[in-house]
Each structure stands twice: as C-alpha cells, then as structure tokens.
Amino acid sequence: MIGRIFTGGCQCGAVRYRAEGTLGDPHICHCRMCQKAAGNYFLPLANIAREGFRITRGQPAWYRSSDLVRRGFCRDCGTPLFYDMPDASFLNIALGSLDDPDDVQPVYQSGVESRMFWFSHLPQLPEKETDDGSEAAAERHLIVLESNRQHPDYDTVHWPPEEDLS
Asked: For the chain, which domains are there?
C-alpha cells in the first residue's frame, strides 16, 4: 500500500499502531455512545483500510458497545483508540491517539443531536495557556516534567524506559 504513514498509540505506550494510506472520512462524532467511550464531549475519528493498519506494540482491549460496533482501548491507561465495525473493510482511529493529531482535520460533525448546546459559545470563552505564569503553575509543571510517564509522540524500542515505579 502506498500512502502516508501515521503512527499513534495510548498514553502509557502499552499499545502502539501504524496506519499506512489515507485517513478517510475524518469527522467529530457527538453521539452519546461516542461521548461515553471517549469520556468527553465528542470523539474525533477517521478510517483506514484494514490492509494498511497494524498494531506494533501490545494489544488493545475491546468493548462491544453494540451488535455492530466494538471499541478498542488500552487496558492499562484507558486511552480510547479505535471504533471498529468488524465486518467493514476499514477501522476507525481515534484522532487524539495519533502522534501528530494536527495532521488530520475533521471535515464534518455527526451525531449533532447530542452535541453540547453551549459549544457555539466556545470561541467567546477566555483562553489561557497551561502555564499561567504563576509560581504554583511553575511548580506543578516541574513536578510533571520530573515524573512524566506519558509515552512520547513517536515510536520507541522499549517503553517505559525504566521499570514501573509504582
């Protein structure tokens, strides 16, 4: 298969994948089932042909959310990874699990009957960066940097780099 290569995985690095080809039908789903599966207000998805997809580390856990759909996630950290209709020729990838989620821009929204009514007001909300410049934020940032166990946004030979410290 010829095409772009996309890599991604879960937050802890236990599950990694590689998708080669075109990520089709990129969209944001607001349906209540996707909200629950993502633990969020919506779930951004795009599909990849099965022949262009492979798991490169670990194995996802699966939850059958309906007779037609199963959802793949990391059993260790809980990251939502896949929306799968097993009889389809493609698999849907949760776009937030891509190493570079900015690579794929959704082109439409589905399940809008369940979209939060206040989404139209988001552009008017005040914005601030993660580090607000306060001493407390700087201290939190330092603690997170020193204790970060999140897998980096690229493939690694081994992860985690050290044994589990918990």
From this structure: 4-117+132-147 (3.90.1590.10)
